[in-house]
């Protein structure tokens, strides 16, 4: 959990992802298309990725990827992020975290 906290606080937006996951790809694109440059941490390319997956699941991420953190706080997985995008609250969250300026 300490490692998740350390990684998730490195940038305004952090996405724990898997390089082969189509939902992870869609979530990354969502942020890139809004002009956000998230820190992407690919769990399947990390030698301790399984430990991180386990820690993310203990935090409530199911599945463990994609797991999105904004401003160091867990937002959730793809369903939560898409809901926030559709209802307009994701943009405000990104502005408040300093990930968006407009």
UniProtKB/TrEMBL annotation:
Q: Which SUPFAM superfamilies match?
A: Thioredoxin-like
**Spans through the membrane:** none
Kindly report the protein's main subcellular placement as a broad class: cytoplasm
Q: Which InterPro entries match?
A: GlrX-like_pln_2, Glutaredoxin, Thioredoxin-like_sf
What keywords tag this UniProt record?
Cytoplasm, Redox-active center
Pfam families of this UniProt entry? Glutaredoxin
UniProt subcellular location = Cytoplasm
Q: Which Gene3D superfamilies match?
A: Glutaredoxin
Q: Which family does it belong to?
A: Belongs to the glutaredoxin family. CC-type subfamily.
Q: Could you tell me what this protein is called?
A: Monothiol glutaredoxin-S10
Organism the protein comes from:
Salvia divinorum (Maria pastora)
Gene (UniProt): GRXS10
